[in-house]
């Protein structure tokens, strides 16, 4: 695709008095301003007050982001049925991630997906990737997301293989804060927490993405051979399907992710070197075999205890996000004031790969 090759949907025309007043650029969590232009998760607005002041002079329905407002830079990711491009806002030169998903699904699933995207756009948490705007047009969903320039945790693991406990504790704390927000503020279950749905950036931030959306897409896939990737981090109660699952199904997924980051490999080992013969072998291991644990001769007692608190077969035995945030493993490195910025930058300098948004 050539730079700027997007089909116009809605063009924002700035008043002549405002066109020359776009000057100072300010970036904050999910909101930025360039002169009188304020861009946030509600769209583009023209304001005369400071960023901290509201309300805007123009309603969001009158001024919203459109695909015509961006220049395409390059493809930065693939996954979940679509591609992700790095795009740049024409007026402010701010970078975003544009995720385009080709949709050939029934109307009921479209409505479900639209509801999930609405929840995404309403989220306001430093540990959740900002979803600024979404469009459905010509059989495709386009989602304008916060650009996380470090890619996914899956990319990062490919570079470093494993993550030392102090850095892992700092990263895990951020993910727990994001999960707490999803569970207690939005009252939703992520359903698809995995390394490729945790994104990082050069500021040392770790953020959750794709909550709700991935689950809708997985349910419409109908391709059994793709389910191994879907089921890897799924809790036993979700796979078994015999009883309702709740927030603590995400805690199981978190435990597997953190253990994989520490060990450098997925905690469940396939029966042979060629991998799993089919998805049912993996499902059987998760449901019927003992839960994975952290080797006590390789990791601290606090880390082993944390993993055990997450990977309990019975969800009632798992700790909640609140309880995990005060766990000794999360607390034991806080006095060290771990800085993830140089750690991420050092790993990023070894090469780059496509992010899986």
Summarize the model shown.
The protein is an alpha+beta fold and 357 residues long. It has helices at 16-19, 107-122, 153-160, 165-184, 213-219, 227-231, 236-240, 248-263, 279-288, 301-310, 321-325, 328-331, 340-348, and strands at 25-28, 31-34, 37-40, 43-46, 70-79, 82-89, 95-102, 131-137, 140-146, 198-200, 206-208.
SS elements, strand count: 11
How far the N terminus sits from the C terminus, by CA atoms, comes to 19 Å
Following the backbone from N to C, one meets helices and strands in this order, namely: HEEEEEEEHEEHHEEHHHHHHHHH
Sequence of strands across the biggest β-sheet: 5-6-7-9-8
What amount of the residues lies in strands?
15-25%
Assign a percent range to the helix content.
25-40%
Task: Supply the helix-strand structural class.
Answer: alpha+beta
Describe this structure in words.
With 357 residues, this protein is of the alpha+beta class. The protein has helices spanning 16-19, 107-122, 153-160, 165-184, 213-219, 227-231, 236-240, 248-263, 279-288, 301-310, 321-325, 328-331, 340-348, and strands at 25-28, 31-34, 37-40, 43-46, 70-79, 82-89, 95-102, 131-137, 140-146, 198-200, 206-208. The chain has a five-stranded antiparallel sheet with strand order 5-6-7-9-8. The chain is globular. Residues 1-30, 32-37, 44-63 and 221-228 have low confidence and may be disordered.
